[in-house]
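Retry 2 of 3 after timeout on previous attempt. Resubmitting C-alpha cells to design endpoint.
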C-alpha cells in the first residue's frame, strides 16, 4: 500500500537500503527500519501518515542524520521518511524579508541563495554543509552565530505540518505580529518529529551585515578564558561569535586543518563581530582590551577574510578532527548561564580526572553552550560505564549551575533519561499530555524524548 503511494522507485525495504538509515551521527545507537520512503509532496506525506496511523506503524522523519541525540535512529522500526524530493527553495520574498522552503533544502544552500539577494539567514550549525532545514527545525539547531542572532526557532515564522492523523495544518505567516491562539509554530520547532511532520517552512531573513571582523585570543589559563566570556557580556557587548577551545581540541584541530593554530596554549577564544564598520571596530577594540585585562597572552585580529574563514572552518571541524583519535567520540552539550562558564569548565575537567577519561571541551562559550567531548572506545565496556557516570555528573552540575542538559542537540533517546532533571515530574507529565493528544497512537518518532526505564545507551538491532 505504501509503495503504491510513492511508486516503487521511492520505496526501499531491502536490507542494504534499510541499513543505510539504521543510524545517525550518534554513537552506539542502531536499529533497522522496516522500510525507507521518499515522498514527492505533502499529499503523499499525508497519505503515508494515514496508513501508518491506521496500522500503528512508527514514522521517523529524517534529514541528513547529523543529529547527536539518536533523534533519527528508528529504534522501534517502522518507516524512515526521506525528503530528497522535497528540497526546493519555493520563494525568496524581499518585500517581507522571508524565504519559504521545503524540508529537504540543505542549510548552506539556503544561506548562499539568500546572500545573493543581500539577505541573511543567521542559524549556522556546524553541519550546515549537509544538514537540512527540516532537520534543523526538528532539533531547533543552533550554531556559532547563536549568541547574537539566536537559534532556528527565532527564524521560523510559519510551518506547514502533517499531523499524526494525516491532517495538514498551517501555522503562523509572513507577519511581524500574530497572537491568534496558541503559538503552534514554536511548539513544533524542536519537537524532534514527535508531534508532526514539517512539509514546508517560512523563515525570517534580515539584511546582511555590512562588515565583519574576527579575532583570536590565546590563554595559558582555562579559567581566565572562561572569565573573559562573562566580562565581555557584562560590558554590554554581544559579539556574533564567542567560541572556546581547550588545548587538547586545539592540538587535534590544528593537526587536521593545518592553518597555523597555536597548540602551546591552554585555551583560545575565537571572537567575531559584525554590523556597521564603525561599531565593529569599536567593539573589537573593547573586546581586545578585556581579553588582555583577563590575562590573554596574545590577541590578534585576522588580517583577511581568508584567514578569518580558516579560523571559523577550523572551529566547525572540531568534532570531525577529534573523531580521528579514538574509535568512539561522544559529544555532549551541557549548557549553563554565561556567568557560570568558568565553574562548568573547571567541573568538567575535575570529572574527567575523577573517571580517568579524555574529555576535550569546546563550544559556544558566549551563550553558555559547551561541548564536552569524550574520546573512548565502545568496545571497552568498563570505560563506557565510566563515560556514562561522568556525563551524568556533568549534566547534574549544569543543572546545579542553573543550566540545562542540552542547548542545541535535542533530547532524542540519548538525553531522555536526564530530562526529568531539568523539567521535573510535572513538566514531563505536561509534555506527555501534549504528545498523547496530538499523537494518540504514538506513531510519530516513538521512543524519543521520554525516557525508558534505564539510563544506558544501547545498540538496538532488528
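Retry 2 succeeded. Sequence:
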Amino acid at each position: 500500500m505504501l509503495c503504491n503511494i510513492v511508486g516503487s522507485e521511492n520505496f526501499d525495504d531491502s536490507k542494504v537500503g534499510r541499513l543505510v538509515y539504521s543510524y545517525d551521527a550518534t554513537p552506539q545507537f542502531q536499529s533497522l527500519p522496516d522500510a525507507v520512503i521518499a515522498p514527492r509532496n505533502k499529499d503523499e506525506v499525508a497519505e503515508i501518515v494515514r496508513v501508518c496511523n491506521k496500522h500503528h506503524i512508527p514514522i521517523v522523519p529524517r534529514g541528513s542524520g547529523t543529529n547527536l541525540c539518536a533523534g533519527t535512529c528508528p529504534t522501534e522500526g517502522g518507516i524512515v521518511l526521506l525528503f530528497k524530493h522535497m528540497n526546493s527553495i519555493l520563494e525568496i520574498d524581499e518585500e517581507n524579508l522571508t524565504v519559504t522552503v521545503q524540508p529537504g533544502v540543505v542549510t548552506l544552500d539556503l544561506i548562499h541563495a539568500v546572500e545573493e539577494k543581500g539577505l541573511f539567514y543567521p542559524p549556522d550549525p556546524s553541519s550546515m554543509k549537509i544538514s537540512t532545514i527540516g532537520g534543523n527545525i526538528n532539533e531547533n539547531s543552533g550554531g556559532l552565530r547563536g549568541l547574537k542572532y539566536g537559534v532556528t526557532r527565532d527564524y521560523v515564522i510559519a510551518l506547514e505540518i502533517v499531523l499524526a492523523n494525516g491532517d495538514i495544518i498551517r501555522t503562523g505567516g509572513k507577519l511581524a505580529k500574530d497572537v491568534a491562539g496558541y503559538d503552534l509554530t514554536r511548539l513544533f520547532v524542536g519537537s524532534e518529529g514527535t508531534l508532526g511532520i514539517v512539509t514546508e517552512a517560512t523563515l525570517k531573513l534580515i539584511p546582511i551585515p555590512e562588515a565583519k571582523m574576527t579575532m583570536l585570543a590565546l590563554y595559558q589559563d582555562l579559567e581566565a578564558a572562561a572569565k573573559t566570556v562573562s566580562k565581555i557580556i557584562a560590558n554590554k557587548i554581544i559579539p556574533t561569535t564567542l567560541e572556546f577551545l581547550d588545548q587538547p581540541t586545539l592540538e587535534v584541530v590544528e593537526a587536521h586543518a593545518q592553518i597555523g593554530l597555536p597548540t602551546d596554549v591552554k585555551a583560545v577564544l575565537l571572537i567575531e563581530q559584525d554590523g556597521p564598520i564603525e561599531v565593529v571596530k569599536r567593539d573589537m577594540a573593547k573586546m581586545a582590551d578585556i581579553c588582555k585585562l583577563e590575562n590573554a597572552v596574545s590577541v590578534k585580529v585576522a588580517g583577511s577574510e581568508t584567514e578569518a574563514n580558516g579560523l571559523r572552518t577550523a572551529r566547525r571541524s572540531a568534532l570531525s578532527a577529534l573523531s580521528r583519535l579514538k574509535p568512539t567520540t561522544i559529544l555532549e552539550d551541557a549548557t549553563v548561564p554565561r556567568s557560570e562558564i568558568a565553574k562548568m569548565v573547571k567541573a568538567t575537567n575535575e570529572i574527567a580526572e575523577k573517571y580517568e577519561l579524555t574529555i576535550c571541551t569546546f563550544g559556544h562559550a558566549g551563550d553558555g553552550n559547551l561541548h564536552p567531548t569524550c574520546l573512548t572506545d565502545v568496545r571497552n565496556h568498563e570505560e563506557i560505564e565510566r563515560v556514562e557516570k561522568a556525563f551524568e555528573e556533568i549534566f547534574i552540575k549544569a543543572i546545579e549551575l542553573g543550566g540545562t542538559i542540552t542547548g542545541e542537540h535535542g533530547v532524542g533517546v540519548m538525553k531522555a533519561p536526564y530530562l526529568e532533571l531539568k523539567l521535573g515530574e510535572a513538566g514531563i507529565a505536561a509534555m506527555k499530555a501534549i504528545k498523547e493528544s496530538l499523537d494518540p497512537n504514538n506513531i510519530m518518532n516513538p521512543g524519543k524524548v521520554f525516557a525508558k526505564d534505564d539510563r544506558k545507551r544501547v545498540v538496538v538491532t532488528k
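Attempt log closed. Confidence is low (pLDDT under 50) at residues 454-462.
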